[in-house]
Amino acid sequence: QVQLQESGGGSVQSGGSLKLSCAASGDSTNCMGWFRQAPGKEREAIASIDNKDRTTYAASVQGRFTISRDNAKNTLSLQMNSLKADDTAMYYCAAEGPSPATMWAMMCYFGFWGQGTQVTVSS
After folding, report:
1. Which site in 3, 27, 61, 73 is 20 to 30 Å from 20, CA atoms measured?
2. In angstroms, how far is CA 21 from the centroid of its own chain?
3. Where is 117: in which H helix or E strand?
4. Model confidence band, residue 48 (pLDDT cutoffs 50, 70, 90)
5. pLDDT (mean) for 98-119
6. Is the dihedral of CA 66, 67, 68, 74 positive or negative?
7. Which residues are CB-neighbours of 3 under 8 A, at least 6 positions away?
8. Pair 47, 62: CB distance under 8 Å
9. What is the maximum alpha-carbon separation in the chain?
10. Can you tell me the distance from the alpha carbon of 112 to that of 37, in angstroms, rounded to the nearest whole number?
């Protein structure tokens, strides 16, 4: 089991930056990632990182967002720069593992989820 808690969301103007953090507890996992879901849209994977720090990004955030993890502190981060109105969504931290809510994305089965943190970008 893995417990995840996001923080760092908020409101920002277009072109601004935010950094999301995710505190993890419980079992260690290989893959961790960030997903987002905008109203009326499906949840989408935007960035993932494995325990060798290999990263994968969705095309929509490539070059603007940076995912990182600190295994000693059990934290996952997402630095978001050059934010756009289209980035407005609920952002979720996720970790690999089996659960009734497992989702396959970026070569990992993500089964543990945080509660989400809202990011709103105004144009």
Report:
1. 27
2. 9
3. strand 117-122
4. very high
5. 91
6. positive
7. 24, 25, 26, 112
8. no
9. 40
10. 16
Q: What is the pLDDT of residue 93?
A: 98
Distance CA 74, CA 9 (A): 19
The tokens describing 101, both together, are 């809510």
CA-derived radius of gyration, the chain = 13
DSSP assignment string, 56-102: EE-TTTTTTEEEEEETTTTEEEEEE-S--GGG-EEEEEEEE---TT-
Reduce the DSSP state of residue 8 to 3 states and report it: coil
- Per residue, the 3-state secondary structure of 92-104, as one string, reads EEEEECCCCCCEE
Instruction: Indicate the pLDDT class of residue 92, thresholds 50, 70 and 90.
Output: very high
